[in-house]
Structures are given as structure tokens and as C-alpha cells.
Amino acid sequence: MYRMTLPLIATHYLDSTNQWDTVGMERRNDAINHISTGYQGQLKYRKTDGSYAIYIETASSTWLTAYVAKVFAMANNLVSIEENVICSALKWLVLHKQLPDGSFKEDSAVISRGMVGGVQGNDADASLTAFVVIAMQEASKICAESVGSLPESIRKAVVFLEGRFPQLTNPYAVAMTSYAMANANKLNKGILMRHSTQKEAGRSWTVPGQHHHSLEATAYAVLALVKDKDFDKAGEAVHWLNRQQTHYGAYGTTQATIMVFQAVAEYRTQVKDRQNFNLDVELSVAGRSTPVKWAIRRENAHLTRSDRVNINQDFNVTAKGTGKAILSVLTLYYARPVEKKSDCTFFDLTVKMEKDNEGAIASYNFTMDFFYKDDKTDATMTILDIGLPTGFEVEESDLKEVLETERIVFRMHQMHNVGQLQPAAVTIYEYYSPGELFNDLCTINTAVAATAKPVIMSVLTSLFCCFSLQYIFGEHTWIEYWPTRAESQTPEHRERYIGITDLQNSLSNYGCAT
């Protein structure tokens, strides 16, 4: 689902803020194609009653069904989506998951934190109900006629949330419930603001120890305040959200990303005619005779300005006029890697290979021990990706006998001699958190004397998290120049930049096809 969500929210944001010129108008068609492909892929998990589950053979999930309905409703004006696909999901929620008191129940929870966000935290009954109600509210224009009970279902849920609202203690639940109630014109802004934190960086709804949940909560609060036309308070929260964004535009988890972009897009759409931007910014760099000047006005306030300064140069930024802007400084430098234990918080992985005699050129017992370290959630869908050195085959009968959940043992036979063996990677990660991975590289030392000494197996431990890469060069490797974003504006580099960037996005979203 996330493969559809990310291009969808990016398209929604760029459409709402008129910023396609900053990334290239031609890329909108690529985004639409990804959304359409993601939609078709998600339909494989749709059941005959309109609900959805992580696996088609498992029980349907209340949260996932509501989430799919929300995303499909958002994509409805971008790609061709059957109305019944959206509305049957809402009908299933009304008929099968709403309790007499108006709340919604979950019988098959999606455990992945990165996917569901903070719905399963404290005050989960209110959070889940608010999440479902928001999905219904955002899809109500599409399904009001085909799902006749939808307005009454929303009303009952809002009444439940009104009763629970004064008792809530979790800022996440407070913010999400506030948005659902604001959509029904029943926002209690006093309670919402009491759970916020005001600092120099802006206003936020902070969930202790859960930064991504704080991002989500603050985004829901922005949507509620914008709905209430309190653009000053919403602006304080948007200011905080903007300062949490990385230099590469990311917010972390899928839920944090989709909610932050939805909230900021809604805020900028509503306030663009109310802002008085007349800001002049000047960047002076030591050694340069002429400063860089930027004139920020209402019509171009959404554009990002950038310049490159050498690390040994002093610079000074001055601004005058009316308006707000955020200055970010990204420092790039070379540093020697420091050997340390894995940064990965989810998994530990140990790989061991022992020489065996099975009649092949060489045979080994391949043993992997692994366990999930996070004590707050369970690993729902763990992927173990095992690469084989060139010329090796696996004893398939061993794989069929694998029964242990935290150890895999099988034999591997070298069937062909290879002049220069490349390392083979063994990677473990959770499907919905691909950035949190643990990777070991296994290499064979081929510089062995022609005596009866055993072949030496060595494990080069390279601990990767967040897509840190190690590059292995061979006879089929070549190097391409990757133009910078600034160089992409020139005819000489534009086509190459677009091509490589498209390849990067494709690999990030869908992986390697071979």
C-alpha cells in the first residue's frame, strides 16, 4: 500500500501548492502511473465484502480497510477508481465493525508501527474510532448515496468521541479526535490546545518518546485548526513541522509522511490569499564580491532557494521585510567509518559457514541465527534475503525441513570454480520497515595453497541501516555521472538527471527486478 501512498501524497501536495515546476512537470505523469499501479496491486488484497487484510486468507482489519478507503478517496480525482471499491469498504465498516455506542472495534490488528502510526497507543478506542470516522468523512461525497447509513454512522461515532474527549490523556488521540470532531463542527479547541507544547521552534502535540507519532499528532491538529479557521495557531504548528523535515524531504514513517503533507497542503491552500509576503533575503559569502539575493513574495513563497558554500568559507544571511522563512544548513564532509555494533533496533543476525565434505568441489553448513529485538511490537512480516556466491547451489531438501523460527541451517555446495568470488549478502528486515535492516557480507578467501589446508570462510560484518550501501565492482560495472539538481536545469545534464532520478525512485519503491 505504501507504494501507492507516497506518490499519491506527493502529487496531492504538489497539486495543492502548485509546485510541479520545482520538480519537473513531466514527472507528474510518472507519479500518476505509480498511483494507478499501486491501486491495481492493492485490489489483490480486497475481499468480496469490500474489506482488506494484510494477507487475503487472514481476518480483515478495521484500520487497514479504513486506510485503504481514505487513500482511494484521495486518489479518486487522479486515477480511475471504481466507486464501489471505496464505498463497499465503508459499508463493511458500518455493518461489521461499529459497536452500539458508536465506536469501532479491531479484531485483526496490523502490528507494524511504521504503517499504522500511533493508533494502537494509549486511548486506542478513541484513536481507532477517529481514524475510521476521518476516512468516512473524507470519502462521504463519493459514497453518501450508495451507503445510506453512512451519515448516521458518522454521527454516532462523533457522539462517542465527544463523550471520550475530556477523558483522553494521549496527545495523539486528542489531536486525531479533534480533526474528526472539527469536520463535524464540534471541535473543543480548549482541550486540544491544552495538550500542545509551545516552544521557540513552534507548537507541537508531543507524544513522549515517539517522534513520528508527534509528527502525526501535530498534523492532525493542524487540520483541525485549519478547519476551525484558526490560521495563526495552525501556522505555529506548521512552523514546527517544517523544522522537523530532513534535508531530503522525508518525515520517516508512511503515516507521518502522508499526514504531514496533507496538513501542510491544506494549510497553504487556505492561507495563501491571507499571507503578506514581502521578504528580501541576502546571502553574503566570504571571498565573493557579489551577494546572492532572493525576493520572496506571496506568489513564489513556496519555492526553495539554495546555494553552495565551501566548508571553509564564512557566510552571513540577512532578511528584511514581512514574512517567515526557514534557513537550513546542510554540511557534507568525509569521515572515517567507525566500527560499532548495529544501529538497527529491530534485528540481530549471526551468519556462520563451516566446511563439510559432500562430494562437490567444496561444501559448507550455512547457519543463521536471528531474533527480533523490539519488545514493544511483534515482527509481522520478516524478510530474510540470502544471496549465494557465484558457482554455489543450495541443498533444497534442507530448506524443506526448516522448522525453527529463529535459526536456519542448510548445506551449500560449490559446483563450479570461479576466479574471483564476489561477496554474497544476507539481509533481514521487516517488510513495512525496509530502512531498518541488518546485513552481513560473506566472502570466501580463494588465496589458499594447494595443500590439504581447509578453505577459510570469513564473514565481513557490514552493519547497514537506512539504506547505507556498500558497492562491489566487477567487470560489468561502470560509472555514470549524476548531475546535481542545479545542473539538471541545463540542456546538457537535464535528460541524464531525469533518467537517473527515475531509476533511483523505481529502485527505492519497487526494488531490483532481477
Describe the protein's architecture and organization.
The chain is α+β, with helices and mostly antiparallel strands and 514 residues long. It has four domains: 2-271, Alpha/alpha barrel (Glycosyltransferase), CATH 1.50.10; 278-322, ubp-family deubiquitinating enzyme fold (Single Sheet), CATH 2.20.210.20; 347-461, Alpha-macroglobulin, receptor-binding domain (Immunoglobulin-like, Sandwich), CATH 2.60.40.690; 479-514, no CATH class. 38% of the residues lie in helices and 18% in strands. It has 15 helices and 13 strands. The protein has helices at residues 2-17, 20-23, 27-42, 62-75, 83-96, 113-116, 124-143, 150-164, 171-183, 189-194, 211-227, 231-244, 254-271, 396-400, 491-510, and strands spanning 197-199, 202-204, 278-285, 292-297, 315-322, 347-356, 362-372, 382-386, 392-394, 407-414, 424-430, 433-445, 456-461. The strands form four sheets. The protein has a four-stranded antiparallel β-sheet with strand order 6-7-10-9. Strand 11 (424-430) and strand 12 (433-445) form a beta hairpin. The protein is globular, with a radius of gyration of 27 Å.
